[in-house]
Amino acid sequence: MQRLATITQSLVLFSALALVPGARVALAASTSTPPPQEPAELAKATGQSCVEYTTQVVYRNYGYDHLVQLRSACQKPVTCHAASDSNPSGVDQSLAPGQSESVLLFRGSPASEFTASVSCRPE
User: Fold this and answer.
1) 3-state secondary structure of 24
2) How far is it, in rounded angstroms, from Cα 19 to Cα 26?
3) Are 88 and 76 in contact (CB under 8 A)?
């Protein structure tokens, strides 16, 4: 009888875990679009550390798009240069105070991962 109660408690606990948001993330990770990388890498160049960026890889039918999301917390406008191992020449993007922008670095890449670097300077 004690063993049956333990098994029942385990099943109830397992059922409850299936409803935890983290379980949905694990299921979403198995889809064709990988989740974005962890946020909050700071762009630090020429004294600017008020721009945060995150990277994201999105699968679109024929390959992966490599994106960098920029978010400015600067008091003045800045120009950021985003580059990656898949696009070493990079892309420039101007940001107003408080502005967020998404920058496409590579479309249709065979690589499902990339490493980005971002540097910003005041305008």
Assistant:
1) helix
2) 12
3) no
